[in-house]
């Protein structure tokens, strides 16, 4: 390039320098000059059908890959349409970079009624971003991008929002594109040596230790498994941590923190090692009462504020989860004797007892959970929405690898997440992906099926059709509240899928699921598999 690059061109170039490969966005009149910088950047642009879908796709992309998902949004409605998805990512600590336009600098705060004008747009996003910045000079862009990626890669992640006035996109930048480089990422912080010594002493002398892992431990599974084996400690996972430790491991008690038998074991432990977890009610699948720890509590988290969230620790370690557990594992001796075998037997008994605590209606869904486990490859990714069957898979469907469980049933708990998030996950990975969503949730983001067709994704989309908001219906029944607003007229989903250019089929027996999913994996287009949920069909007829 002989002439000076524009701000938009430098932005695209820097995204590639920071190893971004795909971006999700819908062009608008305010981002025309932004998109002028896209050709020649080697970025792949994915066009969703709604900005909420763009941010959900970026979320799924980030969860499956561990790299930031990136969105391009227009001023005003582009940002507010994406707000719910950004808030879900904020709640679940998912790295997401949102680049939005904002009106020209001379119009900001003037109330002139400009197109897409949102007074104090930056204020709107601050509530669900870890950092928000409004660019005022084009020359600031490299520094702002460096700060954004340091936050996304080297601290507790979440959405970062950078808004750029539309008059800055075509602004010339100094030098040439080759002059702009990514800043070096910070090395992850390790734990203080004194803290590691104390934790080692407590764990090696514990008689009944327990390990709790949260979503912040995604990269710490191997070290956590080795520590569990050394000290003969059962491992329990938050919903965000499913798969971080292989749930086939005999010391892994799964994501069952909501059940009384697990609560009793954790509360009676003499040492609890809690890593990367908020210890929140959504970790426990909406069980509100906090754990009452009777023994010593060690907490490890990259975010200092989280170290005292929901439970005060006896030892607080503000550091990277993987680095800290690797340090701990390197010095922790292996316990002698038959303690490990006893703990394995204890975990097996706890898993049996968990099933006895299942809520009403679960037994009839267990065959579907088992069929789904048989259908999902060992390293497959399950993406779930807030729907009846997903609340069962949260606990009863074991996963074997990190970044295998992508769900909105934690944290913010929105609807419509699973379809676009599964698209993002599949676009980030060669691993097989299965989406599970309810009929009500699917209607939130059904239009994104067109994106999966365009991208020729072999994506099975399981639609749990119970003719309404079944989970809320169950809660209404339990509270003896009349069913209002929860019974829906559902469309012919198979016909809709075919109208989009996708495949579609309908099943009503668990034994049919594996064949349908395997057939979907062999296609060059998504397949919508409608499941007639138990009791759902009767309500549809009514």
Write the layout of secondary structure elements.
Blueprint: H1 7-17, E1 22-25, H2 32-36, E2 44-46, H3 51-65, E3 69-73, H4 77-91, E4 96-102, H5 121-126, E5 131-134, H6 141-154, E6 159-165, H7 193-204, E7 210-213, H8 221-231, E8 235-237, H9 260-267, E9 271-275, E10 296-301, E11 315-318, H10 321-331, H11 339-356, H12 366-375, E12 381-384, H13 388-396, E13 405-407, H14 418-428, E14 433-438, H15 439-445, H16 449-454, E15 460-465, H17 470-478, H18 493-500, E16 503-507, H19 513-521, E17 527-532, H20 536-541
Parallel strand pairs: 1-2, 1-3, 3-4, 4-6, 5-6, 7-8, 7-9, 9-10, 10-11, 12-13, 12-14, 14-15, 15-17, 16-17
Helix pairs in contact: 3-4, 3-14, 7-10, 8-10, 12-13, 12-19
Organism: Microbulbifer epialgicus
Enzyme class: lyase
EC number: 4.1.1.75
Low-confidence stretches: 537-542
Number of strands: 17
* Total of helices: 20
Estimated share of beta-strand residues: 15-25%
Enumerate the strands of the largest sheet in spatial order, edge to edge or round the barrel.
2-1-3-4-6-5
Structural class: alpha/beta
Shape: globular
- For the terminal residues, how far apart are their CA atoms? 66 Å
Q: Roughly how many Å is the radius of gyration?
A: 24 Å
Sheet bearing the most strands, described?
6 strands, parallel
Mean pLDDT: 93
Share of helical residues:
25-40%
In short:
This protein has 542 residues and is α/β, with parallel strands linked by helices.
């Amino acid at each position: 390039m002989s002439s000076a690059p524009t701000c938009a061109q430098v932005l695209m170039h820097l995204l590639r320098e920071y190893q971004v490969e795909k971006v999700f966005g819908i062009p608008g009149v305010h981002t025309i000059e932004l998109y002028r910088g896209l050709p020649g950047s080697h970025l792949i642009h994915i066009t969703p059908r709604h900005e909420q879908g763009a941010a959900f796709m970026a979320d799924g992309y980030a969860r499956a890959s561990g790299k930031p998902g990136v969105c391009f949004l227009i001023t005003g409605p582009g940002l507010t349409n994406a707000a719910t998805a950004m808030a879900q990512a904020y709640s679940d600590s998912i790295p997401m970079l949102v680049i939005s336009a904002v009106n020209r600098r001379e119009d900001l705060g003037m109330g002139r009624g400009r197109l897409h004008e949102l007074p104090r747009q930056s204020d709107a996003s601050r509530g669900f971003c870890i950092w928000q910045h409004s660019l005022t000079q084009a020359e600031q862009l490299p520094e702002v991008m460096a700060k954004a990626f340091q936050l996304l890669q080297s601290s507790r992640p979440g959405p970062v929002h950078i808004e750029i006035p539309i008059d800055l996109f075509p602004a010339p930048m100094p030098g040439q594109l080759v002059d702009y480089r990514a800043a070096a990422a910070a090395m992850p912080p390790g734990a203080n040596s004194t803290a590691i010594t104390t934790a080692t002493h407590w764990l090696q002398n514990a008689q009944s230790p327990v390990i709790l892992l949260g979503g912040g431990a995604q990269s710490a599974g191997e070290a956590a498994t080795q520590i569990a084996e050394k000290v003969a400690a059962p491992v329990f996972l938050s919903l965000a941590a499913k798969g971080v430790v292989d749930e086939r491991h005999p010391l892994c008690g799964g994501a069952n923190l909501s059940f009384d038998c697990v609560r009793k074991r954790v509360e009676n432990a003499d040492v609890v090692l809690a890593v990367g977890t908020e210890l929140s009610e959504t970790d426990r699948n909406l069980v509100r009462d906090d754990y009452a720890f009777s023994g010593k509590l060690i907490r490890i988290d990259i975010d200092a504020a989280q170290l005292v969230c929901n439970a005060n620790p006896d030892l607080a370690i503000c550091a990277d989860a993987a680095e800290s557990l690797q340090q701990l594992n390197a010095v922790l001796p292996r316990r002698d004797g038959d303690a490990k075998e006893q703990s394995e037997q204890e975990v097996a008994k706890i898993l049996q007892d968990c099933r006895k605590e299942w809520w009403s209606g679960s037994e009839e869904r267990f065959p579907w959970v088992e069929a789904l486990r048989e259908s999902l490859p060992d390293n497959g990714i399950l993406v779930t929405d807030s729907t009846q069957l997903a609340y069962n898979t949260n606990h009863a469907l074991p996963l074997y690898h990190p970044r295998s469980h992508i769900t909105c049933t934690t944290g913010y708990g929105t609807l419509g997440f699973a379809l676009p998030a599964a698209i993002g996950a599949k676009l980030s990975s060669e691993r097989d992906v299965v989406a599970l969503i309810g009929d009500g949730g699917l209607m939130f983001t059904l239009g994104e099926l067109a994106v999966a067709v365009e991208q020729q994704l072999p994506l099975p989309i399981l639609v749990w059709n119970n003719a309404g908001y079944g989970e809320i219906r169950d809660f209404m029944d339990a509270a003896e509240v009349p069913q209002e607003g929860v019974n829906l007229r559902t469309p012919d989903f198979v016909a809709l899928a075919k109208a989009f250019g996708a495949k579609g089929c309908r099943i009503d027996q668990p034994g049919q699921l594996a064949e349908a999913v395997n057939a979907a994996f062999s296609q060059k287009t998504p397949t919508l598999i409608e499941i007639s949920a138990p009791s759902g069909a009767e309500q549809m007829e009514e």
